[in-house]
Amino acid sequence: MGTMILKLAARNLLRNTWRSGLTAGGIAVAVGLLIWTNAFVEGYMAQMIEGTTAVELGQVQIHRGDYADQQAIYKSFEPKPEMMESIRSVEGLEAVAPRVEFFGLAGTERKSQTTRILGVEVGAEKDVSLLDDAIEKGRWLEPSDQGREVVLGQSLARQIGVDVGDELVVIAQAQDGSLGNDLLDVVGIVKTQNNMIDRQTAIVPLKEAQFLGALGGEVHELAIRTKKPDQAEAVANTVRQRLADRRIEAIGDDGEPKKVGFTVQSWQDLVPEMNQMIQMSKSSIWIYYIIIYLIAALGILNTQRMSALERRREFGVIQAIGMSPGRLFGVVMLETVILSLFGALLGVLAGGGLSIYHAAYGFDMGIFASHDTFSMLGVGMSAHVYFIVTLEGVLQPVLALLPVAILCGLWPALSSANLDPASAIAGRQ
Amino acid sequence: MSLIEVSGVERTYRQGEVEVHALRGVDVTVEGGEFSALAGPSGSGKTTLLNMIGGLDSPTAGTVDVNGSRISDMDRSKAADYRLHHIGFIFQAYNLVPVLSAYENAEFVMMLQGVPKAERRERVVPMLREVGLEGMIDRKPSELSGGQQQRVAIVRALASRPKLILADEPTANLDSETSADLLDLMLELNQEYGTTFLFSSHDELVLERARRVVRLRSGQIESDQRDSDEQVA
Questions:
Q1: CATH of domain B4-226
Q2: Which chain A residue has its CA at the smallest distance from B77's CA?
Q3: Where are the domains of chain B?
Q4: Tens digits of per-residue pLDDT, A18-45?
Q5: Using a CB-CB distance cutoff of 8 angstroms, which residues of chain B are in contact with residue A320?
Q6: Hey, which residues does A138 pair with through a beta bridge?
Q7: Helices (H), strands (E): how many in chain A?
Q8: What pTM was computed for the model?
Q9: In a 10 Å sphere around its CB, with 0-12 CB exposed, 13-18 middle and 19+ buried, how is residue A258 labelled?
């Protein structure tokens, strides 16, 4: 019985191959477009997260508990080996790198500029950020961490008027109140599209920064890279738990000694505006779903309604010879579902195939941007977007289509099931 | 107990502003095994009466009992189920399912009844052969002539072995030779299986072969004549 009903539904769809084909094609375009859009948004958002976190930020940062209130040079801490070991063993963590960060003055005898001095442990930093990949001119810092050398942001170097091979004077107030200064060799220029780095930052080896700031072995920040960007919050939570009982002796802003803990923040906490934008972009996809499926629904409804009206006499006969109204309702609904699923399958093949292609070779957004890279909210973005195809991104449009198809099938199916067989056979309305 | 008992059946419906009395107090009974016809001019109410007996329409007043069941009180689903198991239909315009082959059309009712595939084949193939459609069972209705399609419709109605077959103008779209062949075939099947046939027709070929002719005019029975020429009503 089931086979016959299935056969009947399938053959009915083939009666008017042009009409069924066009409707299935419309559904395929709708489903394919949504799969393609999902993969694009996933890729674009991943690129935004990468642009936000990979260059410098990292996915998780650890600071002294009172650092966020006022980022003062003296709010440093000693990254003790057992603490580092405890952090490194967190599941999902890729690498951790200590950093020193404070402001000073950098310049030459002709020109100077307020500069953010970023001290990095050269070997560890390579595993956490992409700063070394952003070298535009010259080279990255020596891995020995011993060099008295500096890498400058492109705009900063231009403003001060120095280039690779020049010398740079750096002056900063150290944490003990003394004035630290040194003469450094400019060995490289970085261009990241990140405004903070390009316009303000001088990157020096960690030991050099600790020397300038009289910090001894202390640091201001531990930057963490997770194995996957979406593990940031989970890793931050685990690290937070592990550091929860850890306190250090410190001098507060009021000059009184106190005990402070640690603050652990994921990139979502550090740049909430970016996180909100990503969440909003993902949610707004449902607007596309509604618009696209509304158009597809009109196509399905038109096809099935026309098809049911054309077969009014036939449905009357089928009911007269004993098919129950419920079973006839099922046949018409089944036709709608088969047509929609066939269209969806074509859409999965087309949309999925195109998305896989763009995942491998990228999608050139050059028509929207005049350069290969551009800055968005201060974050460097490539105009070449590499899509990310996920099972959810493929299945979601198909699963969302099913209720649409069922709703579209209801009217023709109900009107077919409720027709008066005698009138239908006689050709009366 | 008669196979069909129609008592005081009236059917009134509105056609625009006009109230049409299709049947006005019809009483008729049909015994099992009869080969009878409802005759009368267009608008006399013969198709309406046939639809009442088949549960396709409900009377405004009166009752219709078929094989002891009050079909006139059944809801749509129950009436459909009753037709499925007890009544076969043959229509004027053949009305086969165009996407199914001759064989599939012929087994369609049995398939709805849940008859196993092997048994369906066992019943349908010899009957299609008997009505002269051997070698054509895989053809679609569009590949068959009008007479051949009506033969498939007859097999569809008979193969499920109903007690009653209602045939509404079964020869209206056929030439006289084909009509005569089909009527002879139905008469043979009536004698072979004992199935009751009730026609609605004004075709003389049908009325000649029917052993009883109930004539209607303006929704009322005008005469009820049997083979013996005995006037019943």
A1: 3.40.50.300
A2: A324
A3: 4-226
A4: 888 888 998 999 999 999 999 999 898 8
A5: 54, 56, 83, 89, 91
A6: A188
A7: 14, 16
A8: 0.72
A9: middle
